[in-house]
Input
Amino acid sequence: MTTTEAAIRIRGLRKAYGPLVAVDGIDLDVHRGETFALLGPNGAGKSTTIEILEGYRDRTSGDVHVLGVDPSHGGLDWKARMGIVLQSSAEAAQTTVREQLAHFASLYPNPRRVDDVLDAVGLREKAKTRISRLSGGQRRRVDVALGIIGRPELLFLDEPTTGFDPEARREFWGLVRQLKSEGTTILLTTHYLDEAAQLSDRAGVIAGGRLIEVGPVGSIGGADARIPIVRWRDAGGLRERRTAEPAALVAALTAELGGEPSELEVVRPGLEDIYLDLVAAAAASDTKEQAA
Output
């Protein structure tokens, strides 16, 4: 259940390294209880933005509040209210999975039960196994377990299902939905656009350090971006046309050709298609600006 109160509030966020501007004036609210996907290509500025939100990197300018606190001044009490699943982590490889979870649980005022977390991430059978002996995907599940053990109000998930097989990814999606149902606010970064579409209420696309689009997952990019595409092959080669009336176009083509067109397909652009178009348009705009 989402509310209008912002768990994350960003205004004019900027981060520069000398002449290099990594984040260039971002404004964003992430509401309590929602799952928000921050999407963008490598080097777009999303990792820098998230590290600022987590309190691990200073900003050059702008106002940022996370759970009502400026991250540059957040203390241990504030950090205990958050869970963080990084792209990679350095677990204590010689401890068992249960020992590592129990240690992290002891650091929080109201942690989840270790056994509940083991079940949630599918590691109950590996509880007594040393982390060094786990597969890459199993270690990733340990990362997720450590991120949720403290019952966080706000959970950062940075590429959480890297190394998961398809079945494990689906199980993890169920865990994220459970956390959301409990009121957890989730900020997700992922290169799996189907994952973002499945889990997120809203998404933002960042490119060149700027937030170029924000909106509900089902409408990001606007209505025009979702106009269906009809593709077919005729004597002149592969054809493609966008139309709001694909059935009428297919009927007209069938009548014209005396049968169903070869290699016919009707595609309604999904989040991945729209994301790629947005990023490509932003890159083209940047190239024009640099050439001007």
In short: The chain is about 35% helix and 25% strand. The chain has a mean pLDDT of 89. The longest helix spans residues 271-291.
